[in-house]
Amino acid sequence: MDRELAQLRAELDRLHKRERELQQELFDVRAAAQTKRKLIHDISKLQPVAAIDRLPVEVLVRILDFALSVTGYSQWRQHCIQKQLFAGVSRWWMNVVMNTPSLWTTICVCPAWPSSLVKMHVARSHEHLLDIAFLERGA
């Protein structure tokens, strides 16, 4: 019985020692993570912001609106793809594209545009007037 009690106490001491080691390791990991977070923050503040990302929203919207203007049938197919490309430039551009109703007012009712795409444009355009083109296949 005494031997068993001594073994249990020894095991308990070993577990307490391991617990202290793990707590120290956790402390060290948290300190290292905090150092990396600060370094990332400092470096990201030093990175220059591209001139296009410093444009006022109104100017960027005018540029995008011009780039999305449709003058021919072949451009109707590219209209939505262009929006996706613009939204992929940066997080800021994506926010501008997705949250600017005037960029969603041009709608084509044609085989190239599924009804889900038309519905998305109507929803995103909010209450802006729509420019709707009805095109037949092969037009």
Structure overview:
It contains 5 helices and 2 strands; from the N terminus they run ααααβαβ. A two-stranded parallel sheet has the order 1-2. The protein has helices spanning 2-46, 57-67, 73-87, 91-98, 115-124, and strands at residues 106-109, 131-134. Helix content is 64%, strand content 6%. The mean pLDDT is 87. It has 139 residues and is mainly alpha-helical.
User: Spans of 5+ residues with little confidence (pLDDT < 50)?
Assistant: none
Spatial order of the strands forming the largest sheet: 1-2
Q: How can the largest sheet be summarized?
A: 2 strands, parallel
Along the chain, the helix and strand elements come as: HHHHEHE
Secondary structure class reads mainly alpha
- Fraction of residues in helices? 55-70%
Radius of gyration: 30 Å
* Average pLDDT number: 87
What percent of residues are in strands? 5-15%
Number of strands: 2
Number of helices: 5
- Principal-axis shape equals elongated
Span from first to last CA? 96 Å
Write the layout of secondary structure elements.
Elements: H1 2-46, H2 57-67, H3 73-87, H4 91-98, E1 106-109, H5 115-124, E2 131-134
Parallel strand pairs: 1-2
Structural descriptors:
139 residues; mainly alpha; two-stranded parallel sheet; 5 helices; 64% helix
